[in-house]
Specification:
Elements (H helix, E strand, L loop, with lengths): L9 E4 L8 H7 L5 E4 L6 H17 L3 E4 L3 H7 L3 E4 L12 E6 L2 H9 L4 E4 L15 H9 L6 E3 L5 H7 L4 E3 L5
């Protein structure tokens, strides 16, 4: 993690379906927000080139840029951190934020044990990523969030209105910001 960096409240997660809107979304987000670059649909040079283009836009707004990949790749590409399942983030790499994904108490326990800096708990609400899938809802989400030893970022069907209604400061979205 950069010395001048704090954990953002709002996170935009990249995906194949929101790629066309990312440039505009990154520019519109409040300064100091976060971007989680996944883009699993791109390989090799194309994935890296798109990352560089989005990172340039993000840096201009003071955004934190996280890569869904290995710590080695994140360091080589100039990302601020890594994102993934708790076990995939271990061992810790100095200088990188470690954002873990979690869907249940066991995964939150792993995120705590492996020293994650934050955990994205999902899906809070219905989401286009998992149409028809089970959701936590606000009550179960809060119950799980209490188990975390680090800040919790709500994910899954989130947007500004839902975050405000839930009175939850940190949230992430794929569609909710584009």
């Amino acid at each position: 993690m950069r010395q001048d960096q704090s954990l953002p409240d709002i996170w935009l997660i990249s995906d194949e379906r929101n790629d066309a809107a990312l440039d505009v979304a990154i520019k519109r987000m409040p300064s100091g927000s976060g971007i989680i670059y996944r883009h699993y649909h791109l390989a090799g040079v194309k994935r890296y080139a798109r990352f560089r283009a989005l990172r340039r836009l993000a840096r201009a707004k003071g955004h934190t840029v996280i890569l869904a990949d290995s710590a080695l790749t994140a360091t080589e590409w100039g990302a601020d951190g890594i994102y993934g399942a708790p076990r995939s983030l271990y061992p810790r790499r100095a200088g990188l934020l470690h954002l873990a994904t979690a869907h249940n108490a066991h995964e939150i326990s792993l995120a705590n044990r492996f020293g994650s800096d934050a955990v994205l708990v999902s899906p809070v609400f219905a989401t286009n990523s998992h149409i028809g899938g089970a959701t936590l809802g606000p009550v179960r989400f809060r119950m799980l969030a209490k188990l975390s030893g680090v800040p919790v970022i709500a994910l899954g069907g989130m947007d500004r209105d839902r975050a405000r209604t839930m009175n939850w400061p940190r949230w992430a979205a794929i569609d909710g910001l584009t």
